[in-house]
Design goal:
Strand content: under 5%
Structural class: mainly alpha
Low-confidence stretches: 1-16
Radius of gyration: 26 Å
Order of helices and strands: HHHHHHHHHHHEHHEHHHH
Number of helices: 17
Distance between the termini: 30 Å
Mean pLDDT: 89
Number of strands: 2
Length: 348
């Protein structure tokens, strides 16, 4: 074999010896955190950052009925506090916010690799706390969905479905980690986190939808006279805008028609525009997040294969049957080809 004695060009040699400075800089940032790939760190900053930012912005809601401007009673969407200030709905919103906000804050740390490597006990305890908080948060959400943003059927169905898929994903993640099936534990926890993150995308879609239907100027819904009176307080516009509320026997079940107007309307019109948009935005956000997380899992098979090899080794050490497939894997429960560890494949 003849080897070329021609030296590489000076440009090629310089590229080999001097890596891109920006790449070197970012490697110094994300590798101490345990990230091995730049794109993983970028996605973490985007999605975990959004979750953390949203959670921190809503921590003031833990002051449910306080007089501060940032409390839930004074900062929630118009009309929400009318229903949630007493009774079972007050209990539900307290449980929901008191559980889901801490869960959102704690969940971010579960996806920092260095914590999983160096602080495994924290990762485990934190995971148990998150599971408990999410379950409680889902119970609270189910308690209030009848009145949340109008409580339409699509809203109730969407909240119920979100509670089902998040609870199921967390249960499957828990089962797989108990079976040391780490690759499947990763997949189901990612799904659960993405499903829970729909609340952020939902808000964006809801506001955009409210703006659009306000521009169309042809959407209406109903609201009770008592709720309108509660929203306005002393400055009651009943006689001017809803004279039927002041006259006996002129409404059906105390309901009046309210125009949906997010941009220039009264407070009850803003409430209606958000309520009409919420259910649609919820289902669209769930769909986008469901598709998004499956795309991510499909594009990262090398990480799944690496974790499955780790699962195989740990299951062998613990004496599990079907090492490498002791958890919920497609080759054990479906018709996929039997998985083989790397050394068996290499031997062939």
């Amino acid at each position: 074999m003849v080897r070329s004695t021609t030296p590489p060009s000076s440009m090629d040699a310089q590229e080999e010896k001097t890596p891109d400075k920006s790449v070197t800089f970012w490697q110094k940032v994300y590798r101490p955190l345990g990230f091995q790939k730049g794109y993983n760190f970028s996605l973490f900053i985007i999605f975990a950052g959004a979750l953390m930012g949203f959670t921190l912005a809503r921590l003031s809601y833990l002051n449910i009925a306080g007089t501060a401007k940032s409390s839930y009673a004074n900062s929630a969407s118009p009309g929400e506090w009318y229903w949630f200030r007493t009774g079972v709905y007050r209990i539900g919103i307290t449980i929901h916010l008191g559980a889901i906000l801490p869960a959102g804050f704690l969940m971010v740390w579960q996806f920092v690799p260095i914590i999983r490597y160096k602080l495994l006990m924290f990762h485990r305890i934190n995971g148990y706390v998150i599971i408990l908080l999410v379950f409680l948060g889902n119970i609270g959400a189910l308690m209030i969905c009848r009145r949340a943003f109008g409580g339409t059927l699509e809203t109730q169905a969407g909240v119920g479905w979100l509670a089902i898929i998040t609870t199921t994903s967390i249960c499957l993640a828990y089962y797989n980690i108990k079976r040391l099936q780490i690759d499947q534990h990763r997949a189901w926890m990612l799904r659960a986190a993405f499903y829970l993150g729909t609340i952020i995308t939902l808000r964006l879609i809801m506001i955009i939808s409210a703006l659009i239907i306000s521009m169309l100027n042809s959407y209406y819904s109903t609201m009770s006279c008592d709720e309108i009176n509660f929203l306005h307080g002393p400055s009651n516009p009943m006689k001017k805008f809803y004279p039927q509320c002041s006259s006996p026997n002129t409404t059906v079940n105390d309901l009046v028609v309210v125009h949906a107007d997010f941009t220039g309307g009264n407070i009850e019109e803003i409430s209606v525009s958000l309520g009409m948009s919420f259910g649609m935005a919820l289902w669209l956000a769930i769909t986008l997040h469901t598709i998004g997380v499956e795309i991510y899992l499909a594009l990262t098979p090398r990480e799944s294969n690496r974790l499955r090899q780790v699962s195989y080794e740990r299951q062998m050490e613990r004496g599990f049957k079907n090492p490498g497939s002791a958890g919920l894997t497609s080759d054990r429960w479906g018709d996929a080809e039997a998985w083989k560890p790397i050394r068996e494949v290499a031997a062939k």
